Amino acid sequence: MGRYLLRRLNLFLATSLALVTVLFITTSYFPVSKPFALSGIATPTTEQLAQIEADYQLNGNQLQQFIAYAQTRLSGDLGLSVTSQRPVLEELTQALPASFELAIVSGIIAVLFGVPLGVLASLSKNKITQHSIMAITLTGYSIPVFWLGLTLSLWFGVELGWLPVSGRINLLYEIEPVSGFMLIDTLLSDSAYRISAFKDAVFHIILPAITLAVLPFTVVVRITRAAMLNIMELPFIKAAEARGLHTGTIVLRHALPNALIPVLKNMGLMLGTFASYAMIVEVIFSRQGVGSWLVAGIYQRDYTVIQGGVLGVALIIIFFSILIEVLHNAYNPLSRKEIYAAN
C-alpha cells in the first residue's frame, strides 16, 4: 500500500509540473511585458522591477526562468491582481468556499436522488418505469447546462417568483464570514436574524445546485443501474436469496455497497467536467465563486488572475481525482488485492 500511495504522490507531482510548464509557456504569449504578466504590476518602480527580474530570473536562460517560475507559483506567490492590486492567492482563497459549497450541495443532491432511482431502475420489472427513468437521465445528460440554468431562472425566479436567481444571500443580511460557507456562517452568526438568513441562503443555492446536479445525477443513475444489474446476478446474491433474506436486506446490506464502488470511481473521472459546468453555473446565477472570479479576470485581461485561477482549479481537480482513486481502491476489495499483489 505504501508503494501505491507513493506512486499516486509521484503522479500528482508530475501532473502539477506539466501544468506549470503549460502555464509558463502560455505566459510568454501574453500581449504585455513579461514582468507585468508575471507580477500584475503595470508600472513597477525601479526597485520593484529589479525584484521581479530577480524572483523570476528574467535575465537567465529559459530553464532558469522556468525553475524560478515554478518555485514562485508553487510556493503560493501568484502575483497581484491587475484590477484590484490585491494578492491573487488571497482572492482565490476567498472565492473557493463558495465554489466548494455549491459543489458539495450539488453532489449531495445528485447522490441522494440518483442512487435510489438507479436501484429502482435495476430492480423494477415494469418496463414503463425502467424506460421512463432512463429517458429522464438521457434527457438530463443531453440538456446544455447554460440553457437549463437560464430556463430554471426564468420559470422559478422571474415568472413564478419563488426563488432568487442571483447572489448567495440577500444584501439586507450582514453576515460576518467565518468559514466562507454561507450556509454555515449564517448559523454561526450571533445576529437575531440568523435563522432567516440561513433560510435565505438555502433559497439562493437551490436553483444553481439543481442546475449543477443534473449532470452527475444522470451519471449516478446510469452507473448505479448498471452496477446493480451486474451484482444482483452474482453467486453471493443468489446465495442470500436462497437463504430467504428479504430483498430490501439483500439490496441495502450486500448489493448497494458494492454498486457504489463504480459510482465513486466515475465521480472522480468527471471532476473536470463538473468543475467547468460549475463555472458556467456561477456566472449564470452571479455567485461569487472561483468560476465567476476567473471569468471576470478573463474579460478584464487580468493575466495574474488567469494564471492563478487556472493553476488553483487544476491542482484541486488533480488532487481530488487522485484522492477519489485512492479511496476507490481502498474500498474495493479487488483493487486492494491488485495493489498488494503489485507490492
Automatic annotation (TrEMBL):
It is a multi-pass membrane protein. One of its GO terms (molecular function) is dipeptide transmembrane transporter activity. Residues 96-328 form the ABC transmembrane type-1 domain. GO terms for cellular component: plasma membrane. It is found in: Cell membrane. The chain crosses the membrane at residues 12-30, 102-123, 135-158, 201-223, 263-285, 305-327. InterPro entries: MetI-like, MetI-like_sf. Keywords: Cell membrane, Membrane, Transmembrane, Transmembrane helix, Transport. This is ABC transporter permease. It comes from Shewanella fidelis.
